[in-house]
Design goal:
The complex is a heterodimer of chains A (about 110) and B (about 110).
Chain A lengths: L3 E4 L2 E4 L5 E7 L5 E8 L3 E10 L2 E4 L6 E3 L9 E3 L8 E8 L7 E2 L3 E5 L1
Parallel strand pairs in A: 2-11
Antiparallel strand pairs in A: 1-3, 3-8, 4-5, 4-9, 5-6, 7-8, 9-10, 9-11
Chain B lengths: L2 E3 L4 E5 L4 E3 L2 E3 L4 E8 L6 E5 L10 E2 L10 E3 L8 E9 L6 E3 L3 E6 L1
Parallel strand pairs in B: 2-11
Antiparallel strand pairs in B: 1-4, 3-8, 5-6, 5-9, 7-8, 9-10, 9-11
The chains are: A mainly beta (about 110), B mainly beta (about 110).
Amino acid sequence: DGGITQSPKYLFRKEGQNVTLSCEQNLNHDAMYWYRQDPGQGLRLIYYSQIVNDFQKGDIAEGYSVSREKKESFPLTVTSAQKNPTAFYLCASRGVGLEKLFFGSGTQLSVL
Amino acid sequence: AQRVTQPEKLLSVFKGAPVELKCNYSYSGSPELFWYVQYSRQRLQLLLRHISRESIKGFTADLNKGETSFHLKKPFAQEEDSAMYYCALISDNAGNMLTFGGGTRLMVKP
């Protein structure tokens, strides 16, 4: 199913709660990305990682954290500091060079 | 900083009409441009990339470095072309950060 899996498909967060979105890929890709998709605002980069144990902030990293302990996994934590977390979150991965991105099917996060 | 601008959020055309989705960019270094498409209830997927100089599903896009544009064109739109289209840029001066535009929703009416 595309080689990149996001879970869960739907996630609900209570006020003050941290939640973690999972992203796993079996494509042996080095680079992985997290994007936030809001209606009318397109895709905005949250964090990206080029190799294991390394990651960089994107355009809207505040209120989010990531880790890259394994090549296959790039989980995103939405912390309580993120005041407007309701959005559709997309994970993507890419191989060496300037190859295309492979996208996951996304996680819809909503606040209770 | 690199930036991608898609000035139209919505583009509505009739079937058989030509379509042009605009994309302008700013960058540092040597950019690589892409068009991604998201059909209803499907994953975002690559449509075409400028270095390939290819035509996919009748769409083409030419990189104009003078105007810093990468507009997507199709001479005769089809109903199945209705989707969300994103222009994206990656620059060798920005690590491997891939930046997307805000997207344009194309609606092709019968």
